[in-house]
Amino acid sequence: MSLFIGGTEIIFIIFIVVMVFGADKIPEIARGLGKGMRQLKDASNEIKYEIQKSAEKHGIDTDIDTDITKELNEEVTKVKDEIENFTGSIKRKL
User: Fold this and answer.
1) Domain residue limits, the chain
2) What's the Cα-to-Cα distance from 51 to each of 24, 60, 66, 71, 78, rounded to whole Å?
């Protein structure tokens, strides 16, 4: 099962959004998505900082990347790229 969607699905979703909300509401929705993405990024950075601070306090070396953290970072990057591509296509349609 794939988590990501293709171009056809994105176009279909955009069509449904335009039909439901109208073209004049799409910029407002895109701004809301942008703010939400920013809040998510800020929250993840704060969590990362707290984990690093706690690890340093307990003498754990935070410079060592394990396979799990590398995989998580790759997945988070993929999701962020997909969201940015989706919001970018909405902005281009306006």
Assistant:
1) 7-93
2) 42, 10, 15, 17, 22
